Amino acid sequence: MFYQLYELNHAMMAPWRTAADAMRLAFSNPMNPMSHTYLGRATAAGLEVFERTTRRYGKPEFGLPETMIDGQPVGVHERIVWREPFCNLIHFERALPKGRAADPKVLIVAPMSGHYATLLRGTVEALLPHSDIYITDWIDARMVPLSEGTFDLDDYIDYVIQMLHFLGPDTHVIGVCQPAVPVLAAAALMEAADDPLSPASMTLMGGPIDTRINPTAVNLLAKERPIEWFRDNVVMPVPWPQPGFMRMVYPGFLQLSGFMSMNLDRHLIAHKEFFAHLVKNDGDAAEKHRDFYDEYLAVMDLTAEFYLQTVQVVFMQHALPKGEMVHRGRRVDTSAIRKVALLTVEGENDDISGVGQTKAAQTICTNIPDHMRMHYMQPDVGHYGVFNGSRFRREIAPRIVAFQREHARHAKPVKQLIKGGKTA
Predict the structure, then answer these.
(1) What angle do CA 107, 108, 109 make, to 5 degrees?
(2) Is the pLDDT of residue 75 over 90?
(3) How far out from the chain centre does Cα 300 lie?
């Protein structure tokens, strides 16, 4: 009943949020003399903090209407080009100048770990000037009716393979955080099948390839508890009247609570500083806080079968690095990867995927030639900085672009081996 109680609490708070927002507008209205006093600004600030900490945040927009190509602004249009019940594939179509050569096709596999794909807005923005970008837009499990069936880690890997087939030859794939494992598994399965549509290059960023290396608090939790504990304590049915009513899920708000508790003091300080910025009328700093938390606090549910299988296979059994991972009866053999170039990226201060966990892919992919592999560790960044922020734009993104261009295959179109997905 925990999910139902959460929803009930949210509904009960709705009138208070509405009243707080109305009072905030009144106290911040310049026609109100109180808005020009410290008491008035402090009251408005407190009311905004209350409203923002009790609301449910909806799915954000990418909000990337244009990019710069060859020094000129170019329009960008988002279009869904492939659909499945649990994922849409978004293409960022750029209005390229006539006659300009095509850029490398890049499939960004966003994490299915509680946040929406828009968490990678900075990743997309940094790569758009140089690449033809597609990104996975995972669907909130509570919005998917039970009639659409289940979705687990095996289905996730199937989706990645189907999308690579849809995009065709000479596609580069990027797995950010959690997708590093299914992306690597998909590449291994495609190579083992001698699939001509295997990716030209594979970039794995801050991913849990081998969580036995420098385990973090997230890894230790999975190690300390049996899988039954997770099934009994964090998996629950979607409440009515959501479209996914009675679907068993790992709620996004639970995952968000776990992540916030890891750095609770930092979040409390951030909200205290937000209050102070509002009182001082420091609009720029306050807006940065809103932008970050509008994204960070927007969460989605995961299907129970995907969550539990991931916890067991990736964090408990360490099946992929031990060579024991199985996908629909077939062993995932990473030594089969020979033609896919591999770039691994880590952050020095990553507290989600410890240093060395992503680099482990270089060790288990034994048959990739040395000239087709590279590892990069970015100093002075945490997990988020591996795929967002100034250091990502300045240091990491240029390396990804250069690596992909160096290892492009320029392959001719070939017949797809496996059909999947629906074109929009």
Answers:
(1) 110
(2) yes
(3) 11
